[in-house]
Amino acid sequence: MTDQVIPDYDATMRELQTDNGVLRYHEYGDGPPLVLLHGSGPGVSGWRNYRGNLGLFGQHFRCLVLEFPGFGVSDDWGGHPMVTALSAMEAFVDGLGLDTFDVIGNSMGGGVGIGYDLAHPGRIRRLVTIGGIGRNIFSPGPGEGIKLLQEFTENPTRESLVQWLHSMVYNPAVVTDELIEERWALGTDPGALESARRMYGKAAFAAMIKGMEASDVPPQWAQMHKVKAKTLLTWGRDDRVSPLDMALIPMRVIPNAELHVFPNCGHWAMIEAKADFERTVLGFLREA
């Protein structure tokens, strides 16, 4: 395997104009298209989720890292960013003229990938999720990391940000001063913070749960038996945001799913278990 090149932020940045505003994304590498979808939380972006993985994946795939609206990079589409994320993905892949493609989705991004497959069966060839899908069975919900995220959203202090960041990982050394400063800068940006409150403010979060419970539409976990894409579920054994028991339903009901659990790893498997994650995912994506 050739040495990995570290991609440059500015050199890989692209823009796609849509009816709702500009979607920004990073493009790196050559090969079949691989769409990478980020999770949620203060200071999150697709670049921050996946920049460390692009050097390897870009040797085999045309990596397309979408920045969802409402997280401070792409234009804000208004509304609930978790709801508009699916529409953004639809506009993105259609705007780039992608017919079939692979997807890696971290947490919320994995849910968006599943939602896309349910709405457009056959377009996603292979789907990799990183925690965050399914539902709690043995553990209480929401998870510890979600509660700390709510605390930061309600009262954005540096201390509450650090507490949330530590809930995302198994090894506290991952939470460096550089990471804290980077996440603090974007997480406290007025626009990004206002958007976060639409998702994780306590009143907004309670309203979302109430709306889901009252809806006539089955929850996503109850529709996973319809997923067509061959699916790799990846999970950190020590995930405090979406505990491992959440994987049991998708593992059991997605027709062509397999589960890989990384020990000594929290919610960011692509970062904390980087080498093992890349080896596992690359093998899955490159299978005939």
Automatic annotation (TrEMBL):
Keywords: Hydrolase. GO terms for molecular function: hydrolase activity. Residues 34-277 form the AB hydrolase-1 domain. GO terms for cellular component: membrane. InterPro entries: AB_hydrolase_1, AB_hydrolase_fold, AB_hydrolase_sf. PANTHER family: AB HYDROLASE SUPERFAMILY PROTEIN YCLE, MONOACYLGLYCEROL LIPASE. This is 2-hydroxy-6-oxo-6-phenylhexa-2,4-dienoate hydrolase. It comes from Gordonia neofelifaecis NRRL B-59395.
